[in-house]
């Protein structure tokens, strides 16, 4: 394997000059650049990324912690983040925590030991890790997407889930429904709590009662939506419409209704949240609250890169605005 010394010898220049050409950090005449680049091509020389990162103290990599889930929402977010990393010349190292705190800690240590330039965190673990965990490593730029297992100062990007829950429920009310249930996500997660609060607010503003059993705390997964809808169908007075706290649970609700011989929206209307890629392809296409996932990926990378270049600036909280996407899963009463 060719070395920088080999390139310098063939081009008839110093190793420093070869380094200047490769890193483009000093003036080198066009004539010398051509000689060096010709030698690089002839020797098929590939600069050591590790050596370069040690010298410039940057690895051009970003680490991301995310919880593995059957919910396609997470995969769509990761895809958007990776694409925006690539467009800006960075590589993404993805660590799935599998919902396990021990694995979360080990993944975090791995990313920090690999000297990633910054961290994106989008986890769902319940435990809050002690601050002294991060004190073992140099302060690293960090952006939290919705929720973080650390009590540390970081930039935060999140969805206005309170408004989203209110939008979804108000839409059902505007279509003439009065008996409206909510399949909420896990209440130890801020987005799930806020979406439920939005549902309650819309119902209160419309002076509508929430009967006992109409609020179910589920898990943001397909199976959770299915079992929750089955539970609602067992009530003496089942709801006319259901707001599911995310699209995965809404799809699970579809399946429960299908198994019960009922149809959407003829028997029960359903509205979801997230607007995942399969939502328009459901039967019927799912009415939902859109989260701008591509925008979230771009904003996360832009915010992290700014934090990396301006470490002393005040942490920011950026809130994305949800939007109603009307399809065919909600009838009109």
UniProtKB/TrEMBL annotation:
One of its GO terms (molecular function) is DNA-binding transcription factor activity. It comes from Xenorhabdus bovienii str. kraussei Quebec. Keywords: DNA-binding, Repressor, Transcription, Transcription regulation. PANTHER family: LACI-RELATED TRANSCRIPTIONAL REPRESSOR, RIBOSE OPERON REPRESSOR. The keyword DNA-binding applies. It holds the Pfam family LacI. It comes from the Bacteria. Residues 2-56 form the HTH lacI-type domain. SMART domains: HTH_LACI. CDD domains: HTH_LacI (cd01392), PBP1_PurR (cd06275). The keyword Flavoprotein does not apply. This is Ribose operon repressor.
């Amino acid at each position: 394997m060719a070395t920088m010394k080999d390139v310098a010898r063939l081009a008839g220049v110093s190793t420093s000059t070869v380094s200047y050409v490769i890193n483009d950090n000093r003036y080198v005449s066009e004539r010398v650049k051509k000689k060096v680049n010709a030698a690089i091509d002839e020797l098929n020389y590939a600069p050591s990324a590790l050596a370069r990162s040690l010298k410039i103290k940057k690895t051009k990599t970003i680490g991301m912690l995310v919880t593995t889930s059957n919910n396609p929402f997470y995969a769509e977010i990761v895809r958007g983040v990776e694409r925006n990393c690539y467009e800006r010349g960075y590589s993404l190292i993805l660590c799935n925590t599998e919902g396990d705190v021990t694995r979360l800690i080990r993944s975090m240590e791995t990313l920090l030991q690999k000297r990633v330039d910054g961290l994106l965190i989008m986890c769902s673990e319940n435990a809050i890790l002690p601050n002294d965990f991060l004190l073992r490593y140099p302060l690293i730029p960090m952006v939290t997407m919705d929720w973080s297992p650390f009590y540390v100062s970081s930039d935060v990007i999140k969805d206005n889930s309170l408004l989203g829950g209110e939008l979804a429920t108000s839409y059902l009310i505007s279509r003439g429904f009065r008996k409206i249930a909510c399949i909420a996500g896990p209440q130890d997660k801020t987005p799930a709590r806020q979406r439920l609060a939005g549902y309650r607010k819309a119902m209160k503003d419309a002076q509508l009662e929430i009967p006992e059993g109409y609020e179910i705390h589920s898990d943001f997964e397909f199976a959770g939506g299915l079992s929750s809808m089955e539970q609602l169908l067992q009530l003496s007075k089942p709801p006319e419409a259901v707001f599911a706290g995310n699209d995965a649970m809404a799809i699970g609700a579809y399946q429960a209704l299908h198994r019960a011989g009922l149809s959407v929206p003829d028997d029960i209307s359903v509205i979801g949240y997230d607007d995942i890629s399969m939502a328009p392809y459901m039967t019927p296409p799912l009415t939902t609250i859109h989260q701008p996932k591509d925008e979230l990926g771009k904003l996360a990378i832009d915010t992290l890169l700014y934090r990396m270049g301006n470490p002393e600036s005040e942490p920011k909280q950026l809130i994305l605005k949800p939007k109603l996407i009307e399809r065919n899963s909600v009838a009109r009463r």
